[in-house]
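Onboarding guide, step 5: your first structure request.
Type a short instruction followed by the sequence, for example:

Predict the 3D structure of this protein.
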Amino acid sequence: MASKLKIFGKEYTIEGEDVSPDYMRKVAGYVDSKIGELSQSSQSSFDIVVLAALNIADELFQERESHNEEKLIIERTIALLEDGLSQI
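The system replies with structure tokens like these:
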């Protein structure tokens, strides 16, 4: 389903399979807000968009790293519990 979204003052028509229009608006709004945070600077539009992309990528990488750390903690806890149960 196609949705018309506005990012950084420009309208885009986006189509996505198995993605609701509300979700696409939410994602576009997030990107637009990140660009908006940087648009107060005197840099070119291209530089602002690149910096916003870097900020979003940084958030993604930090989230993935945090998720991996949580996964390791859970795996270690399970191993400790299994080891403790095997000694009963």
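Each response can be followed by summary notes, for example: The two ends are 57 Å apart (CA to CA).
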